[in-house]
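Ticket #4471: complex job returned nothing on first submit. Input attached below:
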Amino acid sequence: MSSREEILALLRENARYSTEDLARQTDLDEAEVERTIEDLEAEGVIRGYQAIVDASKTEPERVRASVELNVTLDRETGYDDIAQRLAKFPEVTGLRLVSGDFDFAMEVEGDSMSEVSRFISEKVAPVPEITQTVTHYIMESYKERGVEFGDGHDDDRLSISP
Amino acid sequence: MTFEESDRLATVPPSGIRRFFEIAEEYDDIISLGVGEPDFAPPWSARDAAIASLERGQTSYTANRGMGELRDRIAVDVEKRYGLQYDPDTEILVTSGASEAIDLAFRAFHNPGDTVAVAQPCYLSYVPGATLAGADVIDVPTREADDFKLTREVLEASGAAEADTLVMCYPNNPTGATMTREELAPVADFAREHDLQVFSDEIYAELTYEHDHASIATFPGMAERTVVFNGFSKAYAMTGLRLGYALAPAEAIEAMNRIHQYTMLSAPTTAQHAAIDALDNCADDVDEMRTQYNRRRNFLLSRFEEMGLDCFRASGAFYVFPECPWDDADAFAEALIEEEGVAVVPGHVFGAGGEGHLRVTYATSMRDLKEAMARIESFIE
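Support reply: We reran it on our side without changes. The output follows.
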């Protein structure tokens, strides 16, 4: 694994590893780690760092929905045009073009179900190219971006073994 | 009526690790760096294969030597990975963990009064295994100056030349030491010169970080005098499924199988199904685990160096073996559990040469390792 791949793998595991800890885990010195991260950021490989939050434990609880969107395209309007417009809304936390029965999988976040519903009906549905929206409210989250939301006590090994 | 222990058993003390286990068990929420097994679950695919075999009701005994499909795959695998050539029909015995295979070998090839030279520090079963077989044990303490590798000097100094059997384990538990082909050559020479049989425990063979594993059985004239032990516990994180194997010349496997067929009958069938899948489909999982272990190893070696604790560059298994900052390693390990909630195991528990050291396992999440290292650092300051 190259040092780039190595650093990227470690940051995907935990973006809060300090430069020191990244250096300790690899064969790189701290300056090399810093430089590698700067390169990854400058090239747009790393686009940001965020906490993975269990929304059910925040006050007030945030409401999230995944929304399926179907669109029609014409000569002037492609997927990218529609996506760029939708991505500007601060309520939209994720937007992906997907294969299958619908075109876009969009993630939306708000303070309440009514707020999210209003956003979909007033801001998203009226976009002329969008022909259909199907909204799924997220009821419970068990895992986000590789992190399980269990109690973390699933190591049942003996505390000392030969 | 009272049960009186046999004279032979009476010479076997309770496991030295037991005391630390009991101390550790008194505390909730300790971070244990005292475990001798992976923190990963077995690869999904191997677990699925085990479940599927249960659904099909495949729970009968297998052939004493293990399922033919499994032995065939083991033969292919050890040849591909380590250059070991064994006939799956006559030279491979599948056992309930490598530990059973080691016990079988001690019992099959020793008479009372035979001598077994055990390279130490080492896994806790060898000395009791030899003792229960009636053999006398010669301690062969390896030295930190040699990075705990087995050398001709320590073999000569300990009187191993007189032994019938040499027991060695590389990559090593508890030190994390490994041996290259060049370093094994003089040991192979010594074994041939003094006509020793060699028991080579290679259970950690897949977990090396600086060079590929080399097996002593691949040296000229060594396969005929060596029993190689390996298994699925460490490489595939299948400790509780209890599956290992022995590789040896046909007459040796036949002898070991004669005990195995009466005492164990056959290794766990469900585990054999998991193992077949592990060998077919799980090489990538092993690579991923090795990558993770290596990062953690680097982390611990860096941290101990920063703390000013002498720690040789362990290059295999999932252990590092730093010096103990106190003269009394037992007292240190106890105090570390009581005051900081971190468990490690004093090195002397694993035999001669381990004094003054600590076995620290990195088969634990990075988060716990980071926290544990911070606690150890503040404790020794």
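The interface with chain A takes residues 15, 17, 20-21, 24-25, 30, 32, 34-37, 39, 123-125, 173, 291, 295-296, 298-299, 302-303, 343, 345, 366-367, 370 of chain B (CB under 8 Å). Closing as resolved unless it happens again.
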